[in-house]
Amino acid sequence: SDIFTVSVNIAGLPGLSVPCGFDAGGMPVGAQLIGQRFMDAKVLNAGHAYQLCTDYHTKRPEVR
């Protein structure tokens, strides 16, 4: 479902989803970073910095 991303797209704002862990059921959870209009590079840099500080992007959900 894209219910949480449509308004950002309509507004023309840059957005990025980054993995940030797993819920109690083992499903992946993501954080959505949203920036000001025309600040795409800042959003990408924030996502890159987050990825450098965490290892969530290397984790995979357990297959049951």
**Average predicted confidence as pLDDT:** 91
How much of the residues is beta strand, in percent? 15-25%
Number of strands: 2
Please list the strands of the largest sheet in the order they lie side by side: 1-2
Helix content: 25-40%
Order of helices and strands: HEEH
Largest sheet: 2 strands, antiparallel
Q: How far apart, in Å, are the first and last alpha carbons? A: 23 Å
Radius of gyration: 13 Å
Backbone shape: flat
Structure description:
This protein has helices at 6-11, 40-53; strands at 15-22, 28-34. With 64 residues, the chain is of the alpha+beta class. The chain has a two-stranded antiparallel sheet. The chain starts with 5 loop residues before the first helix and ends in an 11-residue tail after the last helix. The mean pLDDT is 91.
Features:
single chain; 64 residues; 2 helices; flat; alpha+beta
Question: Quick recap of the structure?
Answer:
Helices cover about 30% and strands about 25% of the residues. It is built from 2 helices and 2 strands, in the order αββα.
How does the SSE layout of this entry go?
Blueprint: H1 6-11, E1 15-22, E2 28-34, H2 40-53
Antiparallel strand pairs: 1-2
